[in-house]
Write a structure and sequence with these properties.
Elements lengths: L10 H10 L3 E3 L2 E3 L14 H8 L2 E5 L2 E5 L5 H11 L4 E6 L3 E6 L2 H15 L2
Antiparallel strand pairs: 1-2, 3-4, 4-6, 5-6
Length: 121
């Protein structure tokens, strides 16, 4: 459809542009975040993402478990990966849960407290 309208784009470019606009594929199709404008490319607004998506937080050893609404785990994980808080090794997102791998149990507890605070929980 893009090509038919004179727009040249590869799948990789389109995927990257959608990610930069915070448009994600969820269980019911594509999701455009509401309530906050998309961040400028290269910025990493973790607190707005926490307020928008995070519903609950738990800790198990070196893993912070973040609960979101359906289809909202990927946008939250993307923001955590962009910011990469100190001690975070990486994320794994499902549909409504994000596992945040952390360097140590102590850092995991601290990150969970920070995420809760950012989300107002």
């Amino acid at each position: 459809m893009l090509e038919q309208n004179g727009v040249a784009a590869t799948q990789a470019t389109l995927s990257r542009d959608l990610r930069d606009l915070n448009v994600y594929k969820g269980a019911n199709g594509y999701i455009v975040p509401t309530g906050t404008p998309p961040p400028a490319p290269g910025s990493a607004p973790l607190e707005p993402a926490m307020k928008q998506y995070l519903l609950g937080v738990g800790v198990s050893g070196t893993v912070v478990v973040c609960q979101t609404g359906p289809g909202q785990a990927m946008p939250l994980a993307t923001e955590v990966d962009r910011v990469k808080p100190t001690g975070v090794v990486g994320t794994l997102a499902g549909d409504d849960t994000v596992f945040v791998a952390v360097e140590s149990p102590g850092k995991a507890r601290a990150i969970a407290r920070t995420f809760k605070s950012m989300a107002g929980l």
